[in-house]
Amino acid sequence: MDAYDQGADRTRDPDPADPPGPGEPAPEPPGPDRTGPAERSGPGESSEAADLSEPRGAAAPSGPGEPSGPADLSEPGGAAVPDGHTGPSRPTGPVAPGPLPEPSGPPAPSEASAPVGAVDRGGAGPAGVAALSPRYQVVAALALAVAAVTVCVHLGMVFLHVAPSNTLSKQHSGAIDDWVYPEFEQNWKLFAPNPLQQNIAVQVRADVGTADGGVRTTGWYDLSAEDGRAIDGNPLPSHTQQNELRRAWDFFLSTHDANNRPNGQRGALARTYLTRIVLLRLGREDAAGDGGTVQRVQVRSRTTNVPPPRWSGEKVSDRPTYRVLPWWPISDADLSRDAKPAGAAQ
User: Fold this and answer.
1) Is 148 helix (H, G, I), strand (E, B) or coil?
2) 164-187, pLDDT tens digit by residue?
3) Nearest 5 degrees, angle CA 299-CA 303-CA 306?
4) Strand stretches in the chain, DSSP E
5) What is the rounded distance in angstroms from the CA atom of residue 69 to the CA atom of residue 82?
């Protein structure tokens, strides 16, 4: 029985996990096992006896200098591990190359790689109007309400001004005109099928009473040309220079017939408005002179056709036409404190 055991022990492959005994060389690392069961058995011994005498996972008898004890079944192949060995077990065979094992789960995202919206802001407070104090919130709400109401009123007034005549626009025509004129005037002549093709200049002259009791008549002052010189080269001309005289003349023509007689209740208002404008302009030009007084004024318009382009076959006259108004005496009602020119009649 001892011979059988020793024979089986001699045929057993050395376990790389077993430390070598005294005087024994260190075993070489095991390579791929290419021998069959019959080749592992000793001479004269059958492979079946070797297999039966050495069951899988059984501990080999300990020789001199080798630790005894049951084999560690947790080690692959049933190899025994020396006492006190706590490190990872070594594989008993060659390890086949392969891809590295993937992590069991995705890495936790860090704050630096997280999107901006996902970063905790540490409980930041509200922004905008909500961040203001209650007092300033009330002020901001009132300002927004006033702005909204003003915009709605302006849009409504402009709509009623440009819309066809209706009951609402007739009933509140005065308020609409006061809101629209003169800053928000809507003039569609630029988009008309037949736009204006004439240049109209408003001119005025005056009878001036001299200091010696005589009367002299001044020359014609071209008021439109004065406005044109003030606008030319000025990037921000005033609304008065652009529209005051033109609108006054249009107002007069719309309220008077071809014989310069008023055709409605606004005729007298149009005449008074035009008279005060020309008196202001005469005062700027010092038309009365030293000791003189303006007694009467006369207004006329000079109309010339705009020449057509060269490629057009249209023929128009280049001779100016005049519309001369009668002389208007100057009364105290025409001489308000603001409209009174230097040397005007008292």
Assistant:
1) helix
2) 888 888 899 989 988 988 788 776
3) 155
4) 198-209, 215-217, 221-222, 293-305, 321-324, 328-329
5) 9
Instruction: Report yes or no: 273 and 255 within 8 Å, Cβ to Cβ.
Output: no
Residue 121 clears pLDDT 90, i.e. is over it: no
Helix 267-285 crosses helix 223-231 at what angle (to 10 degrees)?
A: 70
- Give the amino acid at 136: Y
- SS3 of 201, please? strand
Strand partners, 296: 207, 329
Give SS3 for 53.
helix
- CA–CA dist 183, 140 (Å, integer): 28
> Among 39-43, 74-78, 132-136, which range has the highest average pLDDT?
132-136
Residue 245 pLDDT > 90: yes
Tell me the pLDDT band of 130, cut-offs 50, 70 and 90: confident
Residues 6+ apart with CB under 8 A from 95: none
Question: Is there a contact between 195 and 211 (Cβ–Cβ < 8 Å)?
Answer: no
Handedness of CA 36, 37, 40, 43 (dihedral sign): negative
Q: Looking at the chain, how many residues does it have?
A: 346
Gap between the Cα atoms of 2 and 98, Å rounded: 46
* SS3 of residue 170 by DSSP: helix
Q: Give residue-wise pLDDT tens across range 280-324.
A: 999 999 988 888 889 999 999 999 999 888 888 888 888 999 999
Instruction: Output 195 or 110, whichever has higher pLDDT.
Output: 195
* 315 close to 231: Cβ distance less than 8 angstroms: no
CA distance 260 to 264: 12
Using alpha carbons, list the distances in angstroms from residue 319 to 55, 194, 201, 253.
Answer: 135, 21, 14, 22
Cα separation of 79 and 189, whole Å?
A: 109
- Mean residue pLDDT of the chain comes to 74
Q: What is the mean pLDDT of residues 255-259?
A: 93
* Cα gap 200→248, rounded to integer Å: 13
- Amino acid, res. 135: R
Question: Alpha helix (H) ranges present in the chain?
Answer: 2-11, 37-40, 47-53, 134-162, 167-171, 173-180, 223-231, 239, 245-254, 267-285
